[in-house]
Write a structure and sequence with these properties.
Blueprint (H helix, E strand, L loop, with lengths): L6 E7 L7 E7 L6 E2 L6 E7 L5 E7 L14 E6 L6 E2 L2 H7 L14 E5 L2 E8 L2 E8 L12 E2 L6 E7 L5 E6 L11
């Protein structure tokens, strides 16, 4: 829901290994959805910016043929709800600088999840762990203003974060256990 509760933003497309996604805005009272005009080939995982006039999302300018680790078109983008050219935030460059894994964003999406003041919270994978991170983002230029900072420090997989308007967060903390079993045949 938008900050004023009057609109809903969502995306359609395949979740894993998708080459295409589209972001839509619809009135919270119903009606026909409107495709968010971004100029981006694939748009996914949208969230509202605090002003309610823009949407922040994970997107690519080119189809997902190149590895996102080297594809410089994969990034977070901001687009105005009323149209216009999307702005590349520079988040993926900052993620690479902190060794956050952006190689498979369709499986482990380093996607925006919510705002806490001038920081965007997201789940990021580094090595064998996935933790919650935050990164400062200017609300005037829509550009990253610093480096990602880790918010949680668990040893498992901390993901699927939901950020409330007052800054409180709810997230999943998973511990995976892989065993080998021997059964007589």
């Amino acid at each position: 829901f938008s900050p004023d509760g009057k609109q809903i933003v969502y995306w359609t497309g395949e979740r894993y290994f998708a080459t295409f996604g589209e972001v839509y805005v619809v009135a919270s009272t119903g009606g026909a959805p409107t495709l968010l005009q971004t100029g981006i080939t694939s748009s996914r995982y949208p969230i509202w910016t605090p002003d309610g006039e823009h949407v922040l999302f994970l997107g690519r300018q080119r189809p997902a043929m190149a590895s996102p680790a080297t594809d410089d078109s994969a990034d977070w983008w901001v687009a105005a709800v009323n149209g216009g050219v999307a702005v590349k935030t520079g988040a993926y460059q900052a993620f690479r600088g902190r060794a956050l894994d952006v190689s498979v964003p369709d499986v482990f999406p380093t996607a925006p999840a919510g705002w806490i003041e001038d920081h965007v919270v997201f789940g990021g994978r580094s090595g064998a762990t996935e933790n919650l991170w935050q990164i400062p983002l200017s609300r005037t230029t829509w550009r990253v203003q610093g480096s990602p900072e880790r918010v949680t420090f668990g040893s498992g997989l901390e993901a699927k974060v939901c950020v409330a308007t007052d800054g409180r967060m709810a997230f999943v903390s998973l511990n995976e256990n892989v065993d080998l079993w021997l059964l007589p045949i």
